[in-house]
Amino acid sequence: MINLYSWSTPNGQKASIMLEELGLDYCVTAINIGKGEQHHPEYRRISPNGKIPVITDQELQDESGEPVRIFESGNILIYLAEKSGRLLPSRWEERAEVLAWLFFQIGHLGPMVGQWHWFDDSAPAESELAIKRYREETLHLLEVLNGRLGEAPYLGGAEYSIADIANFTWAKAAVEQMKDEEPDAIAALEPLRDWLKRVGARPAVQRGLNVPSEEQKQRAAEAERIPGPAGGGTVLP
Length: 237
Ligand SMILES: N[C@@H](CCC(=O)N[C@@H](CS)C(=O)NCC(=O)O)C(=O)O
Hints:
The structure is a single chain. By secondary structure, the protein is α+β, with helices and mostly antiparallel strands. It has 2 domains: about 1-85 and about 210-235, Glutaredoxin; about 90-205, Glutathione S-transferase Yfyf (Class Pi), Chain A, domain 2 (Up-down Bundle). It has 10 helices and 6 strands. The longest helix has about 30 residues, at about 90-120. The two termini are about 25 Å apart. Bound molecules: glutathione (GSH). The site of glutathione has 12 residues, from helix 1 and helix 3.
């Protein structure tokens, strides 16, 4: 059994979409990052940087019998792809392209869109320069994705892969925020918009976007103690 610790954000949804695509059995623990639950010392044992998502897999245990933690969403995608033998090609020619677009999301798209959202919606002081810088960089990265999707149906090439899962949630969030501010620029990104529609129509993607569900969030909010990674112990008070 796999335990997923997550919240409704683009990084969290990458892990739940992957689990849904693979049809694996998993339990969800909602970590309310709006309330700071990611900083709880017990949770930091499985997430040293205090972020979601994290998974633990009962099949993987360390010397003391504790399930091994797998943090960082790109690492989770690679782990699950290798565990199942799906969505990451084994031939190096194809694998290198999939991993390149996965790391493009981890190193470029996620951080730029994340900073843009933060400066635009959450920063305690307004900074026009920061908003402009991250919005322009986000648009540039969407254009890079669009260029690739003009050459191939999926980011890795002919087949849907973990590169599409990783970039989808972030590109979706960026386009939703950008389309009112830069409608002409977004309208021009036809291959990207078509890919967002195709990937977004996959039933596993739709299920994964809804994790944690309202019910799972409610259950976590009401629980006095949330089961920890080993099934016993605790993650949160
Ligand atoms: N590089 C990490 C980033 C994870 C991340 O930033 N997660 C956000 C949600 S999308 C989070 O946990 N934020 C809580 C916080 O920063 O306190 C990954 O890909 O897993």
